[in-house]
Write a structure and sequence with these properties.
By secondary structure, this protein is an alpha+beta fold. Helix content is about 20%, strand content about 35%. It has 3 domains: about 45 residues, no CATH class; about 300 residues, no CATH class; about 30 residues. The longest helix has 28 residues.
Length: about 375
């Protein structure tokens, strides 16, 4: 029989030195007698329910509040450019959208990858932190073009032109700046859970609902929680091509920029903290909510997350950006140049739309007519 840790839900293991059960995840220790008592509580439906001195379920309004969150980060990566490292690098600034991209001095940047503006100004690269890590491009431009064609073929109402030929205004390989947040966390979550029972007598129907406070908690580790550091890159688009495999990241060298552009971050690590914290909160809530079982409804009441050993790293992730236009509208697609994941909205061919609407509408009408006729004949 597997014993679950009452503190964090992990599988307990017997520690020969202690002669007790120990959780390898949160280091909680329990005697056999304590586990037997908790098993008895589970059998009576009182597990993890807060109790008062008399052992009765505590009124939810009397429960002591959880500690306030401590979500503090050291956002100084400590990695700066050495003298001479940026000698061969240039920054390209778009007059239209203000986007800044970095490349080597041989890069022929003729248009902005963000807005398509054909005019960019080249200047010397200065300032900004040096990336700690980079995931090199694994997939080439041809793979990105093929992905767009397959993407278009999978959409029945996309214009035929998109799948028949390379309908592209521009395709750029660009390194997108990401802040990676690493931390350990002590998590305490409190859920409000309910159980109901129903019965009837000759006169009335009854429903009795009992509400419980259920505490769950433990230690968690978070590695490389990502937040893109560019305001010009659509957050939804970037999140859609995640995840990147950070285990394949290597220490940054300027040589990786050869032939590609790098978006110069304009969202700092400090400005990205709340986005990282929100991801950590959601992950913790989903993880521990799955451990609250045996109730009809469960909702989060309050939480406390205490971060420790927190640090931030600056990384460049590889992305292919594909820009197309259709009847005066611009469409942007993105492909994860490490995994090949491809996203983007295609235009709708109105002719194809009405064709499918009439086709499936006609099929539905025919089926409905046959069913009506069948029932009338019975």
């Amino acid at each position: 029989m597997d014993y679950k840790c009452p503190a964090c839900g992990g599988a307990l293991e017997f520690d020969p030195a202690l002669q007790k059960m120990k959780c390898p995840y949160c280091d909680s220790v329990f005697s056999m007698e304590e586990l037997a008592a908790k098993d008895e509580q589970l059998n009576t439906g009182a597990a993890a329910v807060q109790t008062g001195p008399d052992g009765e379920p505590m009124n939810p309004e009397d429960a002591a509040p959880l500690p306030e969150d401590q979500l503090n980060w050291n956002t100084d990566t400590g990695n700066y450019w050495d003298s001479g490292e940026t000698a061969g690098m240039k920054v390209y600034v778009c007059n239209s959208c203000g986007g800044e991209i970095v490349g080597d001095e041989t890069m022929a940047a003729t248009s902005c990858p963000f807005c398509g503006n054909p005019t960019v100004i080249m200047g010397n690269f200065t300032g900004a932190l040096k990336p700690d890590l980079v995931i090199p491009f694994k997939l080439d431009k041809k793979a990105a073009k093929d992905a767009l064609r397959m993407h278009a073929k999978s959409k029945k109402m996309a214009p035929k032109l998109f799948s028949d030929e390379q309908h592209l205004d521009e395709i750029k390989g660009i390194y997108v700046p990401y802040w990676l947040f690493d931390s350990s966390a002590d998590v305490q979550l409190r859920f409000r859970a309910t159980r109901s029972r129903a019965w009837s007598d000759r006169n009335y129907n009854y429903v009795e609902t009992e509400e419980y406070l259920v505490d769950r908690g433990g230690s968690m580790s978070f590695e490389a929680v990502p937040a893109d550091g560019s305001s010009k890159m659509d957050d939804t688009l970037m999140e859609s091509i995640e995840p990147f495999d950070v285990s394949e990241a290597v220490p940054f060298q300027t040589a990786y920029l050869a032939g590609y552009l790098a978006d110069k971050y304009d969202v700092t690590a400090e400005q990205s903290v709340e986005r990282a914290n929100e991801r950590i909160r959601k992950t913790a809530e989903m993880t521990f909510a799955d451990q609250v079982q045996g109730y009809e409804t469960v909702r989060l009441d309050s939480s406390s997350i205490q971060l420790r050993d927190s640090k931030v790293r600056y990384a460049l992730y590889p992305v292919w950006l594909l820009n197309t236009s259709w009847k005066g509208n611009k469409y942007t697609f993105a492909m994860n140049a490490q995994t090949g994941k491809f996203v983007g909205d295609l235009p709708v061919d109105k002719g194809a739309y009405w064709k499918y609407l009439l086709l499936y509408g006609g099929i539905f009408a025919a089926v409905a007519y046959l069913l009506v006729t069948l029932f009338q004949s019975l």
